Give the backbone structure.
Amino acid sequence: MMINFRKEFIIKLAGQNFKIYCLAGDYDDVSRSRVEGLGATALDYKLNSKGLNPLGDALAVYDLIRLIKKYQPDIVFSFFVKPVIFGTIAAKLAGVPRIVGMLEGLGGAFTLHKNGSSAKTKFIKFIQILLYKLSLPLLDKLILLNSDDKKDLIDRYKIGVKSVEILGGIGVDLAKFKYSQAPAKPVSFIFVARLLAEKGVFEYLRAAKIIKQKHKEVKFYILGSFDETNPFGLKKRQLDMYLNDDIVIYPGFVDNVDEWIASSSVFVLPSYREGFPRSTQEAMAIGRAVITTDSVGCKETVIDGLNGFLVPPYEYEALVRKMEYFIQNPGTIDTMGLESRRIAEKKFDVHKANDRLLKMVLGDQIS
């Protein structure tokens, strides 16, 4: 996560001679070496980013307080749900002068499924809101990626945060995710996300099955990891049925997602809710038309009819219609893809995004 989401930001800080400590709970020798190669110090901490374990979380906070006091940073900057909650509490107890948190989405507890939320999800949301009410007022600044998250969390639950700013997309490296003309013979679609219901994976699979009945030449790629512990996750046996019928192509784990996107015609993310999807930004930078949902976070990426289409969440029939459009009008794949690249250059340049982010994180401490 540290490399995937904060690489360019770490490089920017290191280039301005900041002393940087990167705390994570999942370092291995390779990732530790990569982080330190960027100019930071990699530190282990015990916070489990998933699951509910009050004792484990309390011990993790104690460990964080100890680490923070040892290294005495001027600023603690946390991102993702649990690090923001517990990292903020630890930083406050450790006496850090400036504390900043960034929520890149509100998570599954705030995502409404078609059949409503389960009792477990409602309980998790209740606990999260309590923890947000405890931790977020301790922040000097809260950074969100879209204004809907502010309405649905801060405004709705009347959480007294000192300062809130909206960053927008965290951006992508436009040099790495460079433009290429989309192949359209045959037309192909690609889904890149964790294989969870809330990401729209089941709608994508249902749409693919319908399309393949009429257009056997069309290809459907699916990239992402399983989460067998998630009750709303796609199970391997479920995917196997689609693989055995040659409906989708699933290559397993890949570390060259950009190349897979580049070899596809249209990017598809039928997610129910996002912060500001990084994968869509990457696809747009490569120059791909996008089909996504008219939902929080997703709707920020597509201008309907210009660089792709917005469809209602949950409605696989609408997804089929837009896929059919590209199959019947392959010339629009390149036209819309060019518009995606233009939007990415204007709005999703990671270096411009990090300039804004650095100002938010440093605040009055900018030299």
Remarks:
- The chain has a mean pLDDT of 94.
- The first strand starts at residue 21 and ends at 24.
- Residues 188 and 264 are 5 Å apart (CA to CA).
